[in-house]
Specification:
The complex is a heterodimer of chains A (112) and B (115). The model of chain A has no long low-confidence stretch (mean pLDDT 95). Chain A has 112 residues and is mainly beta. In chain A, the strands form 3 sheets. In chain A, strands 2, 5, 6, 10, 11 and 12 form a 6-stranded mixed sheet that branches. Chain A is globular, with a radius of gyration of 13 Å. By secondary structure, chain B is mainly beta. In chain B, strand 4 and strand 5 form a beta hairpin. The model of chain B has no long low-confidence stretch (mean pLDDT 95). Classes of the chains: A mainly beta (112), B mainly beta (115). Chains A and B meet through strand 5, strand 6, strand 10 and strand 11 of A and strand 5, strand 9, strand 11 and strand 12 of B.
Chain lengths: 112, 115
């Protein structure tokens, strides 16, 4: 079945460091891929998305590229801030599907 | 433009009781999905409602049921509560397209604690 695998956390970085959170997926066809962010005590916010191979999603300095050949959608940011501390979820929506399938989440902690 | 809203914010129940959670979708959206997020885990899909009918269901028992109203708002009902039902319940709204659902936007969630 379809699944999403994220790197284990927590990820601890200093402010202005480079961030990569790995995400790989298993799915048939051409799913859409998403990154959501969850701040403490809140719901999920859409961070970025990509709907087809080689698409790059970007928002607030975060980027991720849909790589069909490696079934990956890694999240990157060139310079993290303390305010980026949160839990990040990679998710897929199968082609013509209805249910989002999430990874287990990666906790990011940024210190000043 | 209001986003997805959920009520109540928090709820405490005891085992065996029943609970109803409510969700209003984002303006212009016609589809509502419900997810359960246990502590430290990713959200798990419960079911999705479109045109007032349950369109797809995840791996959840019949104790979990729902409803969608003509104004697209939705309710999640859980009967015979178990300790394991303690979780954050998230509602997501979206638009249904010819090829499936579009991007899902989440509400703030309802934190349910079962004692």
């Amino acid at each position: 079945g379809n699944s999403v695998t994220q790197m284990e956390g927590p990820v601890t970085l200093s402010e202005e460091a480079f961030l990569t959170i790995n995400c790989t997926y298993t799915a048939t066809g051409y799913p859409s891929l998403f990154w959501y962010v969850q701040y403490p005590g809140e719901g999920l916010q859409l961070l970025l998305k990509a709907t087809k191979a080689d698409d790059k999603g970007s928002n607030k300095g975060f980027e991720a590229t849909y790589r069909k050949e490696t079934t990956s959608f890694h999240l990157e940011k060139g310079s993290v801030q303390v305010s980026d501390s949160a839990v990040y979820f990679c998710a897929l929506l199968e082609q013509a599907g209805t249910a989002l399938i999430f990874g287990k989440g990666t906790t990011l902690s940024v210190s000043s | 433009d209001a986003g997805v809203t959920q009520s109540p914010t928090h709820l405490i129940k005891t085992r065996g009781q029943q609970v109803t959670l409510r969700c209003s979708p984002k303006s212009g959206h016609d589809t509502v999905s419900w997810y359960q997020q246990a502590l430290g885990q990713g959200p798990q899909f419960i079911f999705q409602y479109y045109e007032e009918e349950e369109r797809q269901r995840g791996n959840f028992p019949d104790r979990f049921s729902g409803h969608q109203f003509p104004n697209y708002s939705s309710e999640l009902n859980v009967n015979a509560l178990l300790l394991g039902d303690s979780a954050l319940y998230l509602c997501a709204s979206s638009t249904t397209l010819a090829g499936g659902t579009d991007t899902q936007y989440f509400g703030p969630g309802t934190r349910l604690t079962v004692l």
